[in-house]
Amino acid sequence: MSRSEEAILLREGTTLRKHGNVQGALLRFTEILKLNPQSAIAHREKAITLQIMGEGERAMEEYKKALEIDPTVGTKKASKTKGGKVLKGLTPSGRKVSDIMSRDIISVPFGASARDVADVMVRKNISSVAVSYGGNILGIITERDFIRNFRMIARRGEAGIPAREIMAYPVITIPYDLTLEEAASQMIEKGVRHFLVRDGADIVGMVSHRDILRVYPQIMEGA
User: Fold this and answer.
1) I need a labelling partner for 1 at 20 to 30 A (CA). Which of 11, 78, 208, 217 fits?
2) Domain 97-220 belongs to what topology?
3) Is 0.85 topped by the overall pTM?
4) CATH superfamily name and code, 3-69
5) In angstroms, rounded to a whole number, what is the distance separating the alpha carbons of residues 31 and 87?
């Protein structure tokens, strides 16, 4: 399969998924992998599609395959904002994400339970943890993930729920030299409150909306 043919099928698959046709999307990504089993991007997109379909275990298997082929494919990069939402009342500061990010990323292993995650968050007094596997960060779990999955947790109990079932993935990364204004715009645009921070292909920290709010309370208006 040529790169152009693969790109066409990837584009078709993501478009179908965006419009709710997950079965059609799954067929496109599966077709790519039949001809090119080493396509890390196809494995990742298939994992995302399976997750939407409620096939959590199969999704994680595909996700692990993607990471084995290309450790950097597990992260989606947020590009620098050129416009986006207007940040009301904000005077550009020029400060960078690297100025305020947390360099010590607290993580739990892939096999941890939701209870393990909750214990770490309470003990460390933090609002999020990373989920790691084989030295790579697979996803992020935040306080909001516990709230969003409250019914399932209440029904099955924290000890009976693997962290991978409630984590958000793939993780989204931003460059360390992004300005705080640009990072805030990305959070508002993508509807997330935490980013992993990268320097090239290396993950060097994490930044949250709380970190930005401590510096500029008005920067996250509308988030």
Assistant:
1) 78
2) CBS-domain (3.10.580)
3) no
4) Tetratricopeptide repeat domain (1.25.40.10)
5) 43
